[in-house]
Write a structure and sequence with these properties.
CATH architecture of the domain at 295-523: Distorted Sandwich
Structural class: alpha+beta
Helix content: 25-40%
Strand content: 15-25%
Distance between the termini: 70 Å
Radius of gyration: 25 Å
Largest sheet: 9 strands, antiparallel
CATH topology of the domain at 295-523: Beta-galactosidase, Chain A, domain 5
CATH class of the domain at 295-523: Mainly Beta
Shape: elongated
Number of helices: 15
Length: 525
């Protein structure tokens, strides 16, 4: 009722107000780079975002048949970065045309006016004002400024927003950007700051991880928080005391979620193709070069020895309300050697409206074990249903070597089964030993998968008990296993800019075989 009353007052203020500023009083700068290639696609009338491609031209803002994430991206206008990166007069004209079309559209989907999307749009329009509006005519600028004031009032009235995940920070960022750029609406700032500290306390874990357990979401929240800090500095406003320390802890945690090629590990809706952006975010966050090897609260573990890096998801999935990007990848791991990825997960297409979105969230798309082709968590469109509730971890290190023992109960209710995974990485980083077990009263059929990066080739050796894996550099690794049949099968990789064919090593249990597979991955030569 209070939120409804605030919205009514915001509408009343919009009707009564005749004073719309001619331009932002203080500049707001969007600090993140765009991609000229994606900008060129927008000029041609389509938008590419996180595994999906959709039309984006005048007259398309009323469409509502895209996925919720794609709709949020389209109506949030963060893609203005891509047009700015292109930097041509045609890019400026297209930006103005699309913004004018959006303002004039009277049949937008409900997603377009939700607080997180409104916040993203406010920050994007203000952050790119000099790019697309400085050379525009007076009618366009007046229309734009009137809409900015209207949306900022309604966003303020919507606080605190209903979304309880990382989108809350995007909404707060938009309101703070409006308060900085529109000093006559300075009351927006204390209202935004009132809710910022509680969200930081609720969403950022003690180890610096974000509670959604998605490296991509972690990066997005860190971007929002660094932008908020810069906005407050430009307005000479006092930041909440928790903000600097939170940004520093999140930067340390983010470094722990990267492979040596600079990209993120592919867990829970994440792709690898953002190394330059990550470097920029970390430079904006601060100069600390430390990285965390154990993110105890979120459950990610990083094992490094020699040139080998292993990142393991050894934590329970995020809870309801925080699981929009959650995958059924408990106990999955990725392995890279130097700047080359060897074992990966299949990636994600969270903005896709096709079956690929959920297929990539399933356990079979991760480098871990699956029982009876049933995912360890139940995949639902809005998050997860059944999921592991107890994930146990025991980690030890000695003389540069690492030992990690983990287990989860994701199949306990269905099959009375526990999956246990043990990993040992030698001090040289050239010898990884693994043991995967299914502990159950009755034998369970299971499959163990090692998805390979598309640049890796695999071939079965003559004894059918080992596979030779060859990296692009020519370096070879041998994967041997006992207790299951070994095959090389097709896979697919959504970790980069485009889907790519790949291969996977598959270890399949036999009906009368043991409920345990021992395997070893060793460098050759």
């Amino acid at each position: 009722m209070r939120r409804g009353a605030r919205h009514f007052m915001a509408r009343l203020a919009s009707l009564r107000s005749g004073g719309v500023p001619d331009a932002p009083a203080l500049p707001v700068r969007d600090p993140w780079p765009g991609e000229p290639g994606r900008g060129a696609r927008i000029i041609k009338g389509e938008i590419d975002y996180r595994g999906a491609v959709r039309p984006l031209r005048t007259g398309s803002f009323a469409a509502s048949d895209a996925s919720p994430l794609m709709l949020a991206h389209i109506h949030g206008f963060t893609w203005l970065r891509d047009l700015r990166a292109l930097g041509t007069d045609a890019a400026r004209s297209r930006a103005r045309a699309l913004i004018s079309d959006w303002i004039g559209c009277d049949q937008r989907p409900a997603t377009a006016i939700t607080p997180p999307v409104t916040g993203a749009r406010l920050a994007a329009w203000l952050g790119h004002y000099d790019f697309f509006a400085a050379s525009a005519d007076d009618d366009f600028r007046q229309m734009l400024m009137a809409r900015l004031v209207h949306d900022a009032r309604h966003l303020s009235a919507a606080m605190p927003i209903e979304a309880r995940d990382g989108r809350a920070f995007t909404a707060l960022k938009g309101l703070i950007a409006a308060s900085v750029a529109l000093p006559e609406h300075a009351a927006f700032l204390p209202r935004a700051l009132r809710f910022l500290t509680p969200e930081i306390t609720r969403q950022i874990l003690g180890d610096g991880s974000h509670c959604e357990r998605s490296p991509a979401s972690h990066l997005a929240v860190l971007q929002d928080l660094t932008e908020i800090r810069a906005l407050l500095q430009s307005a000479r406003a006092e930041s909440p005391p928790q903000l600097p320390g939170t940004i520093e802890r999140m930067a340390i945690a983010l470094r722990g979620l990267r492979h040596a090629d600079g990209g993120l590990a592919l867990f829970n809706g994440t792709s690898e193709d953002w190394p330059n952006l990550i470097d920029l975010v970390l430079s904006q966050a601060g100069r600390t070069g430390r990285s965390s090897t154990t993110l105890a609260q979120s459950g990610f573990h990083r094992l490094t020895a020699g040139k080998t890096t292993i990142i393991v998801d050894a934590g329970p999935p995020p809870g309801p309300g925080m699981d929009r990007f959650a995958h059924a990848g408990t106990l999955a791991f990725e392995l890279s050697v130097g700047r080359e990825r060897l074992i990966v997960n299949c990636g994600a297409a969270p903005a896709s409206a096709t079956d690929w979105r959920d297929a990539l969230r399933a356990t079979a798309a991760h480098s871990t074990l699956i029982i009876a082709d049933v995912s360890s968590s139940e995949i639902k469109p809005e998050g997860l249903g059944r999921r592991p509730t107890r994930v146990e971890v025991n980690r030890q290190e000695a003389n540069g070597a690492h030992w990690l023992e983990t287990s989860h109960d994701g199949w306990q209710k269905l099959f009375g089964a526990i999956h246990t995974r043990r990993l040992y990485l030698s001090e040289s980083g050239e010898d990884l030993r693994g043991e995967d077990s299914v502990v159950a009263a009755e034998p369970q059929p299971f499959t163990l998968r090692f998805h390979l990066h598309p640049n890796v080739t695999a071939s079965i050796q003559q004894d059918n008990e080992a596979a030779l894996l060859r990296l692009p550099s020519g370096q070879g690794w041998r994967l041997r296993a006992g207790g299951a049949a070994l095959t090389v099968e097709d896979s697919i990789y959504f970790g980069g800019a485009e889907p790519r064919r790949a291969e996977q090593i598959v270890l399949t249990s036999t009906p009368d075989g043991p409920q345990q597979v021992k395997w070893a991955l060793t460098k050759m030569g």
